[in-house]
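Following up on my earlier thread - several people asked me to post the actual chain instead of describing it. Fair enough. Here it is, all 327 residues.
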Amino acid sequence: MVRGENLRIASIVPVAESEPLHVIERSVLSLKAMDCQGFIHDIYYVVDVSDKSDYRISRLKDLGVHVIARKSRGKRAGAINDALEVIGRYGYVAVFDVDSRPEKNFLRACLKRMEEDVFIVSTPRKITNEEETLVTRVVSLEYSIIGFLYRKFSGGFLQFNGLIGLLRYDLLRKFRLDESRTCEDVDFTTRMYLKGYRADFATESTVGEQAPRNLRDLISQRVRWYTGALEMLEYMRDMFKSHLSPEIRIQWLFAMVIPLVILIFLPLNFLSPLFTWKKTGKLIATIKLSAGLVFHTILLQLSAFLAVYSRMKGKKINWSPPERSLS
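Reply from S.P.:
Thanks for posting it. Predicted structure:
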């Protein structure tokens, strides 16, 4: 655990070629607004470009952040690994996406929870484009339910999508992200647990992110996530031969398998009005969201079937850029 006046934290933000400038500019404003009293905070944008004259690079430099321009290799995992090669030594690394909108106290809240055996600390997620479409509203409801469960059962295996959070620099630099994996985040998390480290959850802050705006982007996102979970079953023998507690091993297995059979929770959707009414306080909105959540569950199961089918056929899951909102 790193502390003291010389503590340095680097924030790394991978930027795909498809990311629009307005989203990147809002990202910079959000990250620069974080409270960094008591430590040095450097911000690095790792920009995939086909031409180094990319106007986004000059704009980022004008905004006062560090820019690492590169030709795309290894996608998001490759961008983070490449950044670790050039940024120098830090106590911790914060990883964000361009649509991440951390609360002002995000870094300080995560830092307070960082212990010697913790490799990552993150916070509850919230959807920043919640009101745009029924898809974004339903995903926001899903995140609220997941956040509730994390608060109740955060003592075992924790997985933070995208590794959005504060990570120990030494562990990330030593073990790196596996660029061959569909979901490098769950792979790195699983490997860290197997090495005896754990994740932690800071409830006193939040980080916002954009939800998929349409069904195409939602299905694409979830097929990729479920394919990543299927790949992690390769670790099952190592996990159950490890010295991890039964609670962690069982929660890990549930985290990998339950999304693939999510339809078993369809009856529980009849309890969803309890969440939706608390969230909206309006009858019509509650009915729409509750019905949307039922459809959402069925859609996730179909996405899981597609992920299993693609893996059985040896088909590669390609990432496609999502449609971004103005937030």
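The chain has a mean pLDDT of 91. That should answer part of your original question.
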